[in-house]
Design a protein that fits this description.
With 383 residues, the protein is an alpha/beta fold. It has two domains: 4-252, Aldolase class I (TIM Barrel, Alpha-Beta Barrel), CATH 3.20.20; 303-382, Arc Repressor Mutant, subunit A, CATH 1.10.10. It has helices spanning 31-48, 69-83, 99-102, 105-111, 125-130, 137-150, 167-178, 197-203, 212-228, 247-253, 280-290, 302-313, 322-329, 333-336, 339-347, 368-375, 378-382; strands at 4-9, 54-61, 85-95, 115-121, 153-160, 184-189, 238-240, 259-261, 266-269, 272-276, 294-299, 320-321, 351-354, 357-360. Strand 5, helix 7 (167-178) and strand 6 form a beta-alpha-beta unit.
């Protein structure tokens, strides 16, 4: 049963031009209404996905650092009452590094948050302006300092491989980032997602994305630098000291059950995929009318579950245990992964196999999407 809880707060002060997440800008928010609605949605899921204590809670968005700390505390209190928490429960909140939000960090820590994921995105003002961020570099670094003084664990995000970025520029920024001493970094290559403002900009010729070869070079130096600093990549874009990995995200990548509440939240419980209404107003209306924000509950066949488990697990440096997946889903190991293609990509240095465990090498990770399409049999994906 579920050991992880995701709570979605959909509101932002502005929509970033690269963002395709479920985020919305609103002039006013009724905090009391949102409190009662989120609690109602949570109780509905707890009645269906009770069981083991939660090992992680994650407030995502949107911008959860805009939530009133009292609301965060009320949700955590209810989650603990419904499921219980493990003694080392990880409670993460995504935060933007504005001075207004940083002023709430101490109150959020007092409410129970023990890990923050800070959306710095860049350490220089020119890149921050290009990315449409509302903070500047000085404000971001001040928020990071405050976070490190308040929370037990701190991670922050950077976006690289943006137009015109050079190797020297990224190496300099990465060295600065590693110097702050956090135990976790999320380092994402800029991708142009459909439906975003950046997608429109590229289509209209406002800028061109960084070419594949220099982007691959930046990916390689990212791996080398973080490894040398003691924060190796444990997932395509995530780097951590041993023991500092995001336990919540590992629940996704290891294909464990998790509860998702709030607008647009996904969940997995007992072979059922859950999806909640995306638009905040539609989600609120559903909760008021039916006592939950669910838009869809869909039973997943064993082949589809196995496919999802592979597609998620092969993102990890640890790879996947095909024997364990075979037992879990009742599918022969040779039917989970195309043996001939695995042997081919092993010979090319793009994949590895050790006993029953298989994975993608660091050299293969830049080609992950293509490799997944080759390694996971089409009949498994479409079954």
């Amino acid at each position: 049963m579920a050991q992880a809880l995701y709570i979605h707060w959909p509101f932002c002060l502005a929509k970033c031009p690269y963002c395709d997440f479920n985020s919305h800008v609103r002039n006013s928010i009724d905090a009391d209404l949102w409190r009662e609605s989120l609690l109602t949605d949570m109780r509905h899921e707890a009645a269906l996905a009770g069981g083991e204590p939660l090992q992680s809670v994650f407030f995502g968005g949107g911008t959860p650092s805009l939530m009133p700390p009292a609301l965060v505390g009320a949700l955590l209190m209810e989650a603990e009452a419904l499921w219980g928490f493990t003694s080392d429960v990880e409670i993460t909140l995504e935060a933007n590094p504005s001075s207004v939000e940083a002023a709430n960090f101490a109150a959020l820590a007092n409410a129970g948050v023990n890990r923050v994921s800070l959306g710095l995105q860049a350490l220089d003002d020119a890149t921050l302006r290009f990315l449409g961020r509302l903070h500047d570099a000085q404000e971001g670094l001040a928020a990071l300092q405050t976070a490190q003084a308040v929370f037990e664990r701190v991670s922050f995000d950077l976006i690289y491989a943006h137009p015109g970025q050079t190797m020297a520029e990224w190496e300099r920024e990465l060295k600065q980032a590693l110097g702050f001493g956090t135990g976790h970094l999320s380092l994402y290559q800029l991708t142009i997602e459909p439906g975003t403002r950046f997608a429109t900009d590229v289509r209209q010729g406002a800028f061109a994305p960084l070419a594949d070869d220099p982007a691959a070079d930046l990916f390689a130096v990212t791996r080398e630098s973080t490894e040398a600093a003691g924060l190796p990549a444990y997932e395509v874009s995530n780097h951590a000291r041993a023991g500092e990995e995001s336990r919540h995200n590992l629940a996704y990548w290891r294909y464990q059950d998790y509860v998702g509440i709030g607008p647009g939240a996904h969940g997995r419980r007992g072979g059922v995929a859950t999806l909640r209404h995306r638009k905040p107003e539609n989600w609120l209306e559903a909760v008021a009318e039916r006592g939950h924000g669910l838009k869809e509950e869909r039973s997943l066949g064993l082949s589809e579950q196995a496919s999802e488990a592979l597609l998620m697990g092969l993102r990890l440096a640890e790879g996947v245990d095909t024997s364990a997946l075979s037992r879990r889903f009742g599918i022969a190991p040779d039917a989970l992964i195309d043996p001939a293609k695995l042997a081919l990509y092993e010979s090319l240095g793009l994949a590895w196999r050790s006993g029953d465990r298989i994975g993608v090498t660091p050299q293969g990770m830049p080609l992950l999407d293509a490799l997944l399409g080759e390694l996971v049999p089409a009949e498994l994906v479409t079954a």
